[in-house]
Specification:
The chain is α/β, with parallel strands linked by helices. It has a single domain, classed as NAD(P)-binding Rossmann-like Domain (Rossmann fold, 3-Layer(aba) Sandwich), CATH 3.40.50. The protein is built from four helices and four strands. Strands 3-2-1-4 form a four-stranded parallel beta sheet, with helices on both faces. The two termini are 30 Å apart.
Length: 125
């Protein structure tokens, strides 16, 4: 595609499976350095190892993105390892079915924590 991403460090939340893995693979094919951030260490490591075996660079970071401190730790680890962050793909989230008809205030707030708050946290650190 020629996206001019050579050696750009890109954080990808939820990057180990599904759409996130597709994004990570595309970034790696463009010469970027994807940082795979997700809650499943095994899934993260498998994709990172696959990319590295193909000659690319990557980093797998296990984080529970509903925890602000994990978001900060993920950013800190990437900065420590690469000295820069050039982009962020906020891909993590789930369709939990919470709505005005199906849920209450506590469930809505929990849904925000699972699906939105980490977007803010990842960008601000």
């Amino acid at each position: 595609m020629a996206l001019a991403l050579e050696n750009h460090v890109i954080l990808v939340t939820g990057g180990a499976k599904g759409i996130g893995a597709g994004i990570v693979e595309l970034l790696a094919a463009e010469g970027a350095v994807p940082v795979i951030i997700g809650r499943n260490a095994g899934d993260n490591a498998v994709l990172a190892r696959t990319l590295e075996e193909s000659g690319g660079q990557s980093l797998a970071i296990t984080a529970e993105l509903t925890r602000t401190e994990d978001c900060q730790r993920a950013v800190d680890i990437a900065l420590e390892r690469f000295g820069q962050i050039n982009g962020l793909v906020n891909n993590a989230g789930i369709n939990d079915g919470i709505s005005l008809e199906h849920g209450d205030t506590d469930q809505f707030l929990a849904s925000l924590r699972r699906n939105l708050v980490h977007y803010y946290d990842m960008a601000r650190f």
